Amino acid sequence: MDATDLCFTPATTLAAMIRSRQISPVEVMEAVLQRIAALNPRLNAYLAVDAEGARAQAQAAEAAVMRGATLSPLHGLPVSIKDLEPSAGLRCTYGSKFFEDNIAEMDGMVTSRVKAAGGIVIGKTNTSHYGYKDMCDNLLGPPCRNPWRLDRTSGASSGGAGAAVAAGLGPLAHGSDGAGSIRIPAALCGVFGLKPSFGRVPNWPNVDIWAARSHNGPITRTVADAALLLHVMAGPDPRDPTSIDSPPEDYVAAVAQPLEALRGLRVAWSADFGYAPVEPEVRQLTAAAAERFRAFGCEVDAVNPGWDDPRAHASTLWYVSYATRLGERYEQRPDWFEPSLAAMIEAGRRVSGVQHGQAQLARTVFYEQARRFFERYDLLLTPQMPLGAWSVEHGPDTIDGTPTPSMFDRLNFTFPFNQTGQPAASVPCGFTSDGLPVALQIVGRWHADRLVLQAAAACEHAAPWAQARPAL
């Protein structure tokens, strides 16, 4: 197997090859690091790479294999960490000029679990400023670009993670998702992304526990790889009181034979929720992917959920969150804030306490509407994004002819399930006529992560995507 093929080999396969001594962790690491060195200057997927440390850890992992040591699930595998999560000894910028030269003194919860499972942290992936938007640019350097079209955005805020996995710059990537930040780049870059149920993967450190909407999760090339990384990351932690108090399931075993779990399920398909603009090609490709669920033995209904459009309350809560967390820094150095982030902070400052409380009440109503809808259906299928990757320079002005002045106008299928906390996966389902990836979203009931992964695995078996590689 040559170095390029090695970089596109699934993590589950690499793990098995390492255990059977068919390949060394050193070989895997060297292939990935060389590819990063060759392509990252064009993609800007990584903000920091610890090549020296990764090589040393790979050598230690090889020695452990050779002496017959007990190997952990991620033994010797390269893993990238989004640059909103600290990893001790590595640069941690949060995409912000305020932390441009910051070196983390501790590991965040995800990093510590990855290391405990034998994973090797190779670097920190690019993100927008504190993850505030769906395009992966900041004031620290060039924007992250889409491997399929370098003039297009990777999506964000886990944009570096999505671009890295798509380009073969590491098989396993950590992402986080507060309004779509795992699913957006997964969809636009043509890889798999899972936003688990809220609390499935604890979030620590976290300055905003009680108003949190963010979920940690995996971005990978295959569903089984995501299941592997989720199994490592999931499980309760007392530092996050919102974490789910149950041990992780064997997600890898669950996705091996997915069809039995799907037979007889009631599945809803909504192309637009009755209010969201969607480009025709995306509508066609995602509708065809949804239709496959009939062959899986499911009953599929084309329906609109009928819930209230959540854009108003979701955007209010989003703006207030950034005004609260970043307002003081904004006053200190307004020139270190992009105009769109400054506008969000200013908008958040104009929200009264009563208006903020009304938005919280509206979120509660929306959750109840979604809960009732999912009493009738086991899964909901939607387009993941309403269009393919847009310009790396600016957001789209319209979607299918409809003006989209707000970021939330193009995130109609993502942020609702941060508001409710339900598991949702982005599943590749084809390419537009100009070669841009398209994805189907699979949404499950609260805590139904296993079923969402099984549904995604069934899609992967029916129409595999991991063999597709961008021409870089």
UniProtKB/TrEMBL annotation:
<dbReference type="Pfam" id="PF01425">
    <property type="entry name" value="Amidase"/>
</dbReference>
<protein>
    <submittedName>
        <fullName>Amidase</fullName>
    </submittedName>
</protein>
<dbReference type="GO" id="GO:0003824">
    <property type="term" value="F:catalytic activity"/>
</dbReference>
<dbReference type="InterPro" id="IPR000120">
    <property type="entry name" value="Amidase"/>
</dbReference>
<comment type="similarity">
    <text>Belongs to the amidase family.</text>
</comment>
<feature type="domain" description="Amidase">
    <location>
        <begin position="27"/>
        <end position="453"/>
    </location>
</feature>
<dbReference type="InterPro" id="IPR023631">
    <property type="entry name" value="Amidase_dom"/>
</dbReference>
<dbReference type="InterPro" id="IPR036928">
    <property type="entry name" value="AS_sf"/>
</dbReference>
<dbReference type="InterPro" id="IPR020556">
    <property type="entry name" value="Amidase_CS"/>
</dbReference>
